[in-house]
Structure formats: C-alpha cells, structure tokens
Design brief:
215 residues; mainly beta; outer membrane lipoprotein receptor (LolB), chain A; 12-stranded mixed sheet; 5 helices
C-alpha cells in the first residue's frame, strides 16, 4: 500500500470504484448490489460528490482521516481532490494520470491503462466488463447497505479485495483491503449523477517549478 499521505484514489489506481442514481425500473429493495453495480457501469457516464476516508492498519491503528471532492467521466477520466487535513490531487485526463502533492512540490505521472487496468478504479471509472477482471460475490447486508466483494483475478494486482456497499441505488461505502493488511474505508456522499462538467474538468498542467516524475 502507498504511504499515509496518499489518498484512496491513488491506491485504487496504482496498487491496488455503485449506482449514483436509480436508472432501472428495479427498486432499491429489489435490486441486489451486483444488479445496481452493473446498472451504474452501463448507465452513469459521469458523477461528482464528496468523500471521507480512513485507513486502519492490521493492528487496528488508524491514520488521520481525509476528506475532499471527486468527479469522474467514463472512460478513465477522474479527479480525486483531498482538501483536509492537507491538499493533494489525483487527476486523470483519460490518457495520463497525475498525482500532485503541493507540500512536496512534486507531480508523478503514469499511463492510465497501466494505473487503472485491473485495479478497483476500473469498477468506478472504467467501462468494461467488471467480471473479466474481478471475481464478484454477494455479501450479507450490514449497516443498512447491500454489499458485494470484488477480488482481482490477477494475483499481482497489489490488493486482496474491495467491498462496495450500496443504499437506495447509490454507493455509500467502499472498503479496500490491501496486500499489507491495511483497510481503507471511503464514505461517499452528495453524489450527483450525469452532471454537466466543464470541458477542462480533468485537464491538469503541472505548476511551474515542481518536479515531474514519470512512472
């Protein structure tokens, strides 16, 4: 797993997310998590919202919580902007993924297909067949949410599993277990489905004077 300063979007994009709006005739009670997730991938092309996240180590110690805003547009464009307790940005224009850390004055870049591929980012931001890359199984309902678990078919994915909890056809929580036994919990809120996004929403130009590292 990446360092504690790195947001959940980096973890899902490198090492290694879910329906935003009710777009099928099924009610929330009738649609299981798998049905909702498939509808999300096929019918929701873009979304915006807010997130909070915490990471807990295998011994139970939790890192400081992070919060911020996110946006995505299929296929492969997304922005994950941490605002608290420090600023950090992970953004993809569909071709390149940029991670900008203002405190370090550093930008790292990599190809989106290498970053997302078979990672949990493919669940939220991709447009392919989920079950080609993941073994998907239902989980018992808990905390008022319907759950499924996605395990990567690729043994080198860098994470063990990702659990997605849905309520009223909206993704409410994502829990990712990485290869080091750390669990990252992300709570999503204030989600807007298929909004009108600015043309430059996912455009990023590294600020002058920062180090740019290509991965």
């Amino acid at each position: 797993m990446l360092g504690s300063r790195r947001p959940w979007a980096v973890a899902i994009a490198t090492a290694t997310t879910a329906v935003w709006l009710s777009l099928s005739p099924l009610t929330a009670a009738a649609a299981d998590a798998r049905t909702q997730l498939k509808a999300f991938v096929s019918q929701v092309n873009s979304a915006t919202g807010k997130f909070t996240q915490t990471t807990t180590g295998p011994q139970g110690g939790a890192q400081r919580a992070q919060s911020g805003d996110f946006a995505f547009q299929r296929p492969g464009k997304f922005k994950w902007a941490v605002s608290q307790p420090y600023e950090q940005l992970v953004i993809s224009d569909g071709q390149q993924l940029f991670q900008y850390d203002p405190d370090l004055a550093q930008v790292t870049t990599r190809q989106v297909d290498q970053a997302i591929g078979t990672s949990p980012a493919a669940i939220l931001f991709g447009s392919g067949d989920l079950e080609q890359a993941f073994e998907v199984t239902p989980l018992p309902a808990r905390d008022g949410l319907e759950w499924l678990r996605a395990k990567p078919r690729n043994a080198d994915a860098g994470f063990a599993q990702v659990d997605i909890g849905l309520q009223n056809n909206l993704p409410s929580r994502v829990e990712l277990l990485d290869s080091f036994g750390q669990t990252t919990r992300v709570d999503l809120s204030q989600i807007q489905s298929n909004p009108s996004l600015p043309a430059n929403e996912f455009r990023f130009v590294p600020p002058a004077g920062v180090d740019v590292v290509k991965m």
